[in-house]
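Q&A log
Question type: sequence-to-structure
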Amino acid sequence: MSAYGIPEEVLRDEGLIKRLEEVAKDTALLHGVLMRTKDRPNSPEVVSYAPFSLFPSPVPRALFHQALEVQTHFNRLVDRISQNPVFLEEALASTIKVDDFTAKLFNIYREVQQEPQALPIVLGLNRSDYMLDQSADGTASLKQIEINTIAASFGGLSSRTPDVHRHILRFANRLEERQQILDNNPAAGLAKGLAKAWELYGSQRAVMMFLVEDVHRNIYDHRYVENELWLRDIPVIRRQFEDVWRGGSLDHDKRLFVDGQEVAIVYFRNGYMPQNYKSEKSWEARLMIERSRAVKCPDISTHLAGTKKVQQELARPGVLERFFPDEPETVAQIRATFAGLYTLDMGEDGDRTVAMALSNPDQYVLKPQREGGGNNIYGEEICRVLESMKNSTERTAYILMDKVRPRPGHNYLLRPDAPLRLCTCLSELGVFGAYVRKGAEMVMNECVGHLLRTKSSEHADGGVAAGVAVLDNPLLV
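Response status: OK
Response body:
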């Protein structure tokens, strides 16, 4: 096997690639790597395979294991941030003045903070995303892009992709690489966290509620996690914000009922973008959920802990030590994954960041407080955006980050209704974490799997759901 993954002569064997294409598509359908077709919810052709790479992509073994090993520390960090109202207030003070969406979330947080809370059960299912930064001397280092604390996706579909690549490699007679495909089942790990929180809630009659969109292309990703829960005899319902507003209520003990059923867990697979809140009814439903005794995944403080502004604040000298005062090794492991992150707050530090970005925009990424892919700003567009607001508080809705430069590779990206072609590709590694806390006791804290997404280098930003990246598997080298 090549030190860089699948050998170039294999990638350029046109006859083999043509044979593999149909095998790969059938195998993806057979193993349930599925998505609904876009913008055609009522079409008879509702389902096709989710986009994926023909071959697994190389990932350095040491950096892969570094990402897995630091995940439980990130779980604890997110949890400790969520419990620190002073830090959240300080970190988001400038952002909430100019970013309406973050401000609405923070207003709910403040309102809930004023109410007495029962002994909390806290559930976190997150995904920390990394790229591998290639230095001038050829060495690579792990750099965190972001941590997703709400609706961290593709734990279900990434549980199915190993078998797809194993079959493709067997068909291609690449037996050595086939043995390198790792077992991976984030769906089971995420469900384990959900099940533990449901058990701690303590009512066999209470249901698990997935909070979802009206039309969701990625529904099969949900279903694999949901099916793991049904296997544990945990009942699951699916509702939208409007359903909760219409059929939801709190009793005198703040237990949440939706359509007459007591809800133990609310698992948010929606609610991370402004457009997810279609009206004030959606915001009222979110507040009702947050005020309830139901376990929220995430609760509002954990949602805020995943904002880009919090990520930038954590990179300041001495901040991580506030959360791990007696754990210098933990601090060092977390900090080793940080890329350069810079404030755009008003004042000297923010002015210096603006000047730095304007003088060399290709070295940076401008990031708003948004999730879901396709929101970041690159290159000369950074200059246009910053010039328009460099003397305005509007700039505090963004952070600036060093641009990570991964080593490109070659692969074929399979998409429904798109021709297959060899692409120069970049990959992003995600690591799933699950934790459950009851009161002061952390009863579960685990790394529960990984995700690799790959995209053509011609695209600067965007994930699988955004139609840019594809599902992949790491081939450790």
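Response note: Residues 114 and 436 are 23 Å apart (CA to CA).
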